[in-house]
């Protein structure tokens, strides 16, 4: 495992108790970006852990392009974030 994995696990426990309501795709991207930075991960590291390309991660964080929902969920899961859709 890489050295940043330990911090990722620690942050995952911390963020598990937090809830944040977001109302747009840009807010989801911003939440992923902020959590990634707080976790001390680069875009390259998160993309590798989420098994997505850096280009896809940039698209998620900037709410541009057309990343798949699976890519968004994968990046969020690595960071310990949960995306819930409610009616």
Order of helices and strands: HHHHH
Strand content: under 5%
Q: Number of helical runs?
A: 5
Fraction of residues in H or I helices: 55-70%
Poorly predicted tracts of residues: 6-10, 12-18
Main sheet record? none
Distance between the termini: 39 Å
Shape: globular
Q: What structural class do helix, strand and pairing data support?
A: mainly alpha
Mean pLDDT: 82
Please state the CA-atom Rg, rounded to the nearest Å: 12 Å
Strand segment tally: 0
Concise structural overview:
The protein has 87 residues and is mainly α. The protein has helices at residues 4-16, 25-38, 43-50, 54-62, 69-78.
Structure keywords:
87 residues, mainly alpha, 0% strand
Structure description:
Helix content is 62%, strand content 0%. The protein contains 5 helices and no strands. It is globular and about 35 Å long. The longest helix is centred in the middle third of the chain and has 14 residues. About 14% of the residues have low confidence. It is mainly α.
